[in-house]
Amino acid sequence: MMYNWTEMAGLKELTYVWTNIKEVDLRPLLAQAQRSLKIALVGRRMDSLNSLAFQMRRDPMRPSQTTSTPLLLLSLEDSTAADSADLVILVLEGPLAGSAGQLPVDDSAEWKLARGWANSGKKVLVVIDMPSPDRARELEAGGALSRWSDWGKQRVVDGSVEDTHFLLHAFAPAVMDLLPEALLSLGRSFPLFRVPIARQLIGEACTSNAAYALSTGIAEIVPVFDIPLNVADMIILTKTQAFLVYKLGLALGLSTRWHDYLTEFGGVLGGGFLWRQVARSLVGLIPAWGVLPKVAVSYAGTYVVGNVVLRWYLTGKHISGKQMRQLYMQAFARGKNLARDLLARLPRPGRRARKALPAPSADRVCPNCGLYSAIDALYCRYCGQPLGR
Protein backbone atom coordinates (compact mmCIF):
# COMPACT_ATOMS: atom_id res chain seq x y z
CA MET A 1 0.00 0.00 0.00
CA MET A 2 1.35 3.45 -0.93
CA TYR A 3 1.08 6.34 1.52
CA ASN A 4 1.09 10.02 0.68
CA TRP A 5 2.82 11.22 3.82
CA THR A 6 2.41 14.90 2.99
CA GLU A 7 -1.34 14.50 3.41
CA MET A 8 -1.08 13.05 6.90
CA ALA A 9 -1.65 15.74 9.53
CA GLY A 10 0.90 14.42 12.02
CA LEU A 11 3.69 14.12 9.49
CA LYS A 12 3.04 17.59 8.13
CA GLU A 13 4.16 18.90 11.50
CA LEU A 14 7.41 16.99 11.09
CA THR A 15 8.17 18.77 7.82
CA TYR A 16 7.53 22.17 9.36
CA VAL A 17 9.68 21.68 12.46
CA TRP A 18 12.63 23.36 10.76
CA THR A 19 10.66 26.28 9.35
CA ASN A 20 8.81 26.86 12.62
CA ILE A 21 11.92 27.32 14.74
CA LYS A 22 11.80 30.88 16.01
CA GLU A 23 14.58 33.34 16.57
CA VAL A 24 13.74 33.38 20.27
CA ASP A 25 14.57 29.65 20.44
CA LEU A 26 18.00 30.26 18.92
CA ARG A 27 18.90 33.44 20.77
CA PRO A 28 20.66 31.71 23.71
CA LEU A 29 22.85 29.73 21.30
CA LEU A 30 23.75 32.87 19.37
CA ALA A 31 24.63 34.64 22.63
CA GLN A 32 26.96 31.78 23.56
CA ALA A 33 28.67 31.90 20.17
CA GLN A 34 29.14 35.66 20.26
CA ARG A 35 30.46 35.70 23.81
CA SER A 36 33.81 37.44 24.13
CA LEU A 37 36.41 34.90 25.21
CA LYS A 38 39.62 36.13 26.81
CA ILE A 39 42.58 33.73 26.71
CA ALA A 40 46.09 34.58 27.91
CA LEU A 41 49.27 32.83 26.73
CA VAL A 42 52.10 33.30 29.23
CA GLY A 43 55.72 32.20 28.91
CA ARG A 44 59.39 33.11 28.73
CA ARG A 45 59.81 32.86 24.96
CA MET A 46 57.60 35.08 22.85
CA ASP A 47 58.32 33.06 19.71
CA SER A 48 56.70 29.99 21.30
CA LEU A 49 53.67 32.05 22.33
CA ASN A 50 53.34 33.47 18.81
CA SER A 51 53.61 29.99 17.34
CA LEU A 52 50.85 28.63 19.57
CA ALA A 53 48.68 31.68 18.86
CA PHE A 54 49.11 31.12 15.12
CA GLN A 55 48.08 27.48 15.46
CA MET A 56 45.00 28.38 17.52
CA ARG A 57 43.83 30.87 14.88
CA ARG A 58 43.88 28.38 12.00
CA ASP A 59 42.11 25.10 11.26
CA PRO A 60 44.64 22.38 10.32
CA MET A 61 41.84 20.51 8.55
CA ARG A 62 41.16 23.61 6.45
CA PRO A 63 44.26 25.86 6.55
CA SER A 64 42.43 28.59 4.65
CA GLN A 65 40.15 29.06 7.66
CA THR A 66 41.90 31.63 9.85
CA THR A 67 40.86 34.34 12.28
CA SER A 68 42.54 37.31 13.91
CA THR A 69 40.89 36.82 17.30
CA PRO A 70 42.80 38.75 19.99
CA LEU A 71 44.95 36.79 22.43
CA LEU A 72 46.95 38.09 25.36
CA LEU A 73 50.62 37.19 24.79
CA LEU A 74 52.42 37.90 28.05
CA SER A 75 55.92 37.50 29.41
CA LEU A 76 56.35 36.26 32.97
CA GLU A 77 56.99 39.83 34.07
CA ASP A 78 53.69 41.03 32.59
CA SER A 79 51.66 38.04 33.78
CA THR A 80 49.41 40.07 36.10
CA ALA A 81 47.47 41.11 32.99
CA ALA A 82 46.25 37.50 32.79
CA ASP A 83 44.24 37.84 36.00
CA SER A 84 41.13 38.87 34.04
CA ALA A 85 41.40 36.04 31.48
CA ASP A 86 38.86 33.23 31.20
CA LEU A 87 41.74 30.81 30.68
CA VAL A 88 45.49 31.09 31.27
CA ILE A 89 47.78 28.90 29.16
CA LEU A 90 51.24 28.77 30.71
CA VAL A 91 53.84 27.63 28.16
CA LEU A 92 56.97 26.00 29.56
CA GLU A 93 60.01 25.37 27.39
CA GLY A 94 61.05 21.73 27.33
CA PRO A 95 64.86 21.41 27.14
CA LEU A 96 66.43 19.90 24.03
CA ALA A 97 67.08 16.17 23.96
CA GLY A 98 70.42 15.28 25.50
CA SER A 99 70.83 18.70 27.15
CA ALA A 100 71.34 19.27 30.85
CA GLY A 101 68.41 21.67 31.07
CA GLN A 102 65.37 20.85 33.18
CA LEU A 103 61.80 22.04 33.51
CA PRO A 104 61.19 24.91 35.93
CA VAL A 105 59.75 23.57 39.19
CA ASP A 106 59.51 24.36 42.90
CA ASP A 107 60.67 27.94 43.43
CA SER A 108 60.69 28.95 39.75
CA ALA A 109 58.64 31.93 38.57
CA GLU A 110 56.44 29.63 36.48
CA TRP A 111 55.70 27.36 39.43
CA LYS A 112 54.75 30.28 41.66
CA LEU A 113 52.51 31.79 38.98
CA ALA A 114 50.73 28.50 38.35
CA ARG A 115 50.14 27.96 42.07
CA GLY A 116 48.86 31.49 42.53
CA TRP A 117 46.39 31.27 39.64
CA ALA A 118 45.15 27.82 40.62
CA ASN A 119 44.72 28.75 44.28
CA SER A 120 42.65 31.78 43.27
CA GLY A 121 40.29 29.62 41.20
CA LYS A 122 41.69 30.61 37.82
CA LYS A 123 41.47 28.05 35.01
CA VAL A 124 45.04 27.12 34.11
CA LEU A 125 46.47 24.89 31.39
CA VAL A 126 50.19 24.15 31.49
CA VAL A 127 51.67 23.35 28.08
CA ILE A 128 55.16 21.87 28.13
CA ASP A 129 56.50 22.62 24.66
CA MET A 130 58.60 19.57 23.89
CA PRO A 131 61.02 19.71 20.95
CA SER A 132 60.98 15.92 20.61
CA PRO A 133 59.28 12.83 22.09
CA ASP A 134 62.73 11.55 23.18
CA ARG A 135 63.19 14.54 25.46
CA ALA A 136 59.74 14.01 26.93
CA ARG A 137 60.68 10.44 27.86
CA GLU A 138 63.94 11.66 29.44
CA LEU A 139 62.11 14.20 31.58
CA GLU A 140 59.45 11.68 32.56
CA ALA A 141 62.14 9.24 33.63
CA GLY A 142 63.67 11.96 35.78
CA GLY A 143 60.35 12.87 37.37
CA ALA A 144 60.25 16.41 35.96
CA LEU A 145 56.97 15.95 34.08
CA SER A 146 55.20 14.22 36.94
CA ARG A 147 56.29 17.05 39.27
CA TRP A 148 53.87 19.27 37.34
CA SER A 149 51.14 16.79 36.49
CA ASP A 150 50.93 15.28 39.99
CA TRP A 151 50.18 18.62 41.60
CA GLY A 152 46.59 18.20 40.43
CA LYS A 153 45.49 21.85 40.47
CA GLN A 154 45.80 22.43 36.74
CA ARG A 155 45.79 20.48 33.49
CA VAL A 156 49.20 19.62 32.05
CA VAL A 157 49.90 18.50 28.48
CA ASP A 158 53.25 18.01 26.78
CA GLY A 159 54.14 18.07 23.09
CA SER A 160 55.34 20.38 20.38
CA VAL A 161 53.17 23.43 19.67
CA GLU A 162 54.02 22.82 16.00
CA ASP A 163 52.66 19.26 16.05
CA THR A 164 49.13 19.04 14.61
CA HIS A 165 48.45 15.64 16.19
CA PHE A 166 49.37 16.94 19.65
CA LEU A 167 47.28 20.07 19.18
CA LEU A 168 44.15 18.19 18.04
CA HIS A 169 44.34 15.19 20.36
CA ALA A 170 45.85 16.57 23.58
CA PHE A 171 45.86 20.37 23.62
CA ALA A 172 42.37 20.97 22.16
CA PRO A 173 40.56 18.45 24.41
CA ALA A 174 42.26 19.94 27.47
CA VAL A 175 41.12 23.47 26.57
CA MET A 176 37.60 22.21 25.82
CA ASP A 177 37.42 20.48 29.21
CA LEU A 178 38.35 23.74 30.92
CA LEU A 179 35.82 25.83 28.95
CA PRO A 180 32.76 23.54 28.60
CA GLU A 181 30.33 26.46 28.77
CA ALA A 182 32.09 28.38 25.97
CA LEU A 183 32.51 25.79 23.21
CA LEU A 184 30.51 27.69 20.58
CA SER A 185 32.55 30.84 21.18
CA LEU A 186 35.81 28.87 21.34
CA GLY A 187 35.23 27.22 17.96
CA ARG A 188 33.98 30.38 16.31
CA SER A 189 36.95 32.41 17.58
CA PHE A 190 39.74 29.85 17.22
CA PRO A 191 39.51 27.48 14.20
CA LEU A 192 41.93 24.94 15.71
CA PHE A 193 39.09 23.73 17.94
CA ARG A 194 36.32 23.59 15.33
CA VAL A 195 36.44 19.95 14.26
CA PRO A 196 37.04 18.58 17.80
CA ILE A 197 34.13 20.68 19.09
CA ALA A 198 31.89 19.63 16.19
CA ARG A 199 32.56 15.97 16.91
CA GLN A 200 31.80 16.48 20.59
CA LEU A 201 28.53 18.30 19.82
CA ILE A 202 27.49 15.52 17.44
CA GLY A 203 28.30 12.86 20.02
CA GLU A 204 26.36 14.66 22.75
CA ALA A 205 23.30 15.15 20.52
CA CYS A 206 23.37 11.50 19.40
CA THR A 207 23.54 10.29 23.00
CA SER A 208 20.81 12.73 24.08
CA ASN A 209 18.41 11.59 21.36
CA ALA A 210 19.20 7.95 22.05
CA ALA A 211 18.50 8.45 25.76
CA TYR A 212 15.21 10.19 24.91
CA ALA A 213 14.19 7.28 22.68
CA LEU A 214 14.97 4.87 25.49
CA SER A 215 12.96 6.89 28.01
CA THR A 216 9.78 6.77 25.90
CA GLY A 217 9.70 2.97 25.85
CA ILE A 218 8.59 0.55 23.17
CA ALA A 219 7.92 2.27 19.86
CA GLU A 220 4.94 2.42 17.61
CA ILE A 221 5.77 1.67 13.98
CA VAL A 222 5.08 4.52 11.57
CA PRO A 223 3.72 2.74 8.48
CA VAL A 224 4.76 5.53 6.13
CA PHE A 225 8.46 5.19 6.98
CA ASP A 226 8.40 1.70 8.50
CA ILE A 227 10.74 2.73 11.31
CA PRO A 228 10.21 2.17 15.05
CA LEU A 229 9.29 5.75 15.98
CA ASN A 230 5.96 7.47 16.34
CA VAL A 231 5.27 10.93 14.97
CA ALA A 232 5.64 12.64 18.36
CA ASP A 233 9.07 11.04 18.76
CA MET A 234 10.19 12.19 15.34
CA ILE A 235 9.04 15.77 15.94
CA ILE A 236 11.09 16.01 19.14
CA LEU A 237 14.12 14.30 17.61
CA THR A 238 13.94 16.45 14.48
CA LYS A 239 13.89 19.64 16.56
CA THR A 240 16.96 18.46 18.46
CA GLN A 241 18.67 17.77 15.14
CA ALA A 242 17.77 21.22 13.83
CA PHE A 243 19.31 22.79 16.93
CA LEU A 244 22.42 20.66 16.38
CA VAL A 245 22.73 22.01 12.83
CA TYR A 246 22.64 25.59 14.12
CA LYS A 247 25.10 24.90 16.96
CA LEU A 248 27.51 23.26 14.53
CA GLY A 249 27.25 26.18 12.16
CA LEU A 250 28.02 28.65 14.93
CA ALA A 251 30.98 26.63 16.23
CA LEU A 252 32.34 26.17 12.70
CA GLY A 253 32.28 29.90 12.02
CA LEU A 254 29.33 29.83 9.60
CA SER A 255 26.34 32.16 9.35
CA THR A 256 24.45 33.33 12.43
CA ARG A 257 21.16 33.46 10.45
CA TRP A 258 18.94 30.40 10.76
CA HIS A 259 17.38 31.11 7.37
CA ASP A 260 20.74 30.38 5.72
CA TYR A 261 20.71 26.87 7.18
CA LEU A 262 17.18 26.29 5.89
CA THR A 263 18.38 27.23 2.43
CA GLU A 264 21.51 25.07 2.54
CA PHE A 265 20.32 21.98 4.42
CA GLY A 266 16.53 22.08 4.53
CA GLY A 267 16.10 19.91 1.45
CA VAL A 268 18.65 17.36 2.64
CA LEU A 269 17.80 17.11 6.33
CA GLY A 270 14.41 18.70 6.86
CA GLY A 271 11.57 16.64 8.27
CA GLY A 272 10.24 13.63 6.39
CA PHE A 273 13.04 13.38 3.84
CA LEU A 274 15.57 12.53 6.53
CA TRP A 275 13.46 9.81 8.12
CA ARG A 276 12.66 8.23 4.76
CA GLN A 277 16.39 8.04 4.10
CA VAL A 278 16.84 6.39 7.50
CA ALA A 279 14.24 3.76 6.61
CA ARG A 280 15.76 3.06 3.17
CA SER A 281 19.25 2.77 4.58
CA LEU A 282 18.29 0.43 7.40
CA VAL A 283 16.15 -2.02 5.42
CA GLY A 284 17.02 -5.53 6.55
CA LEU A 285 19.11 -4.35 9.50
CA ILE A 286 16.31 -4.41 12.07
CA PRO A 287 15.09 -7.95 12.75
CA ALA A 288 12.38 -6.99 15.23
CA TRP A 289 10.90 -3.83 16.66
CA GLY A 290 11.54 -2.85 20.24
CA VAL A 291 13.51 -0.43 22.39
CA LEU A 292 16.95 -1.33 21.02
CA PRO A 293 16.26 -0.54 17.33
CA LYS A 294 14.33 2.57 18.35
CA VAL A 295 17.37 3.88 20.23
CA ALA A 296 19.69 2.89 17.38
CA VAL A 297 17.55 4.67 14.77
CA SER A 298 17.42 7.83 16.91
CA TYR A 299 21.19 7.77 17.26
CA ALA A 300 21.79 7.05 13.56
CA GLY A 301 19.56 9.84 12.28
CA THR A 302 21.22 12.42 14.52
CA TYR A 303 24.71 11.17 13.66
CA VAL A 304 24.04 11.61 9.96
CA VAL A 305 22.61 15.11 10.45
CA GLY A 306 25.75 16.23 12.26
CA ASN A 307 28.14 14.69 9.77
CA VAL A 308 26.30 16.16 6.77
CA VAL A 309 27.00 19.63 8.19
CA LEU A 310 30.59 18.79 9.19
CA ARG A 311 31.38 17.38 5.75
CA TRP A 312 29.94 20.48 4.11
CA TYR A 313 32.21 22.65 6.27
CA LEU A 314 35.30 20.56 5.47
CA THR A 315 34.73 20.05 1.74
CA GLY A 316 32.07 22.53 0.63
CA LYS A 317 30.08 19.57 -0.73
CA HIS A 318 26.96 17.74 0.36
CA ILE A 319 27.17 14.04 1.05
CA SER A 320 26.12 11.72 -1.78
CA GLY A 321 23.29 9.20 -1.53
CA LYS A 322 25.73 6.29 -1.42
CA GLN A 323 27.82 7.95 1.27
CA MET A 324 24.67 8.70 3.24
CA ARG A 325 23.62 5.04 3.20
CA GLN A 326 27.09 3.95 4.31
CA LEU A 327 27.04 6.54 7.06
CA TYR A 328 23.62 5.37 8.25
CA MET A 329 24.72 1.75 8.47
CA GLN A 330 27.86 2.71 10.36
CA ALA A 331 25.87 4.96 12.69
CA PHE A 332 23.18 2.32 13.24
CA ALA A 333 25.83 -0.16 14.39
CA ARG A 334 27.15 2.43 16.84
CA GLY A 335 23.62 3.16 17.98
CA LYS A 336 22.94 -0.50 18.71
CA ASN A 337 26.05 -0.70 20.87
CA LEU A 338 25.02 2.43 22.75
CA ALA A 339 21.49 1.06 23.19
CA ARG A 340 22.84 -2.13 24.72
CA ASP A 341 25.04 -0.09 27.05
CA LEU A 342 22.13 2.13 28.13
CA LEU A 343 19.84 -0.84 28.64
CA ALA A 344 22.48 -2.58 30.73
CA ARG A 345 22.62 0.42 33.07
CA LEU A 346 18.89 0.43 33.77
CA PRO A 347 17.90 -0.88 37.20
CA ARG A 348 16.21 -4.22 36.82
CA PRO A 349 13.33 -5.26 39.08
CA GLY A 350 14.23 -8.41 40.95
CA ARG A 351 12.66 -10.74 43.44
CA ARG A 352 12.67 -9.49 46.98
CA ALA A 353 15.08 -11.56 49.02
CA ARG A 354 13.38 -13.76 51.55
CA LYS A 355 13.88 -12.69 55.09
CA ALA A 356 16.08 -15.16 56.87
CA LEU A 357 14.41 -17.20 59.58
CA PRO A 358 15.68 -16.46 63.07
CA ALA A 359 18.05 -18.99 64.48
CA PRO A 360 16.48 -21.29 67.06
CA SER A 361 16.76 -19.95 70.59
CA ALA A 362 19.65 -21.42 72.55
CA ASP A 363 17.45 -22.20 75.60
CA ARG A 364 15.37 -24.63 73.50
CA VAL A 365 18.31 -26.91 72.90
CA CYS A 366 18.08 -30.13 74.89
CA PRO A 367 21.01 -30.37 77.31
CA ASN A 368 20.76 -34.16 77.14
CA CYS A 369 20.63 -34.95 73.39
CA GLY A 370 21.54 -31.55 71.86
CA LEU A 371 18.52 -31.44 69.53
CA TYR A 372 16.11 -28.52 69.07
CA SER A 373 12.52 -28.45 70.20
CA ALA A 374 9.73 -25.91 69.71
CA ILE A 375 10.30 -22.53 71.30
CA ASP A 376 7.49 -23.06 73.82
CA ALA A 377 8.26 -26.74 74.60
CA LEU A 378 8.81 -27.75 78.23
CA TYR A 379 10.23 -31.19 77.41
CA CYS A 380 12.49 -32.44 74.65
CA ARG A 381 10.50 -34.01 71.84
CA TYR A 382 13.26 -36.52 71.24
CA CYS A 383 14.44 -37.77 74.63
CA GLY A 384 11.72 -36.44 76.95
CA GLN A 385 14.12 -34.65 79.26
CA PRO A 386 12.90 -31.32 80.72
CA LEU A 387 14.18 -28.18 78.97
CA GLY A 388 15.64 -25.34 80.94
CA ARG A 389 13.97 -21.91 80.98
Q: Which labels suit this protein?
A:
389 residues; alpha/beta; Rossmann fold; 5-stranded parallel sheet; two-stranded antiparallel ribbon; 51% helix; disordered N terminus
- How many domains is the backbone divided into? 3
Major sheet attributes: 5 strands, parallel
Helical/strand content category? alpha/beta
Beta strand %: 5-15%
Morphology call: flat
- How much helical structure, as a percent, in the residues? 40-55%
Write the layout of secondary structure elements.
Blueprint: H1 9-20, H2 23-33, E1 39-43, H3 46-56, E2 58-59, E3 62-66, E4 72-74, E5 87-93, H4 109-119, E6 124-129, H5 133-141, H6 144-149, E7 155-159, H7 164-178, H8 183-189, H9 194-215, H10 231-251, H11 258-269, H12 272-281, H13 291-315, H14 321-345
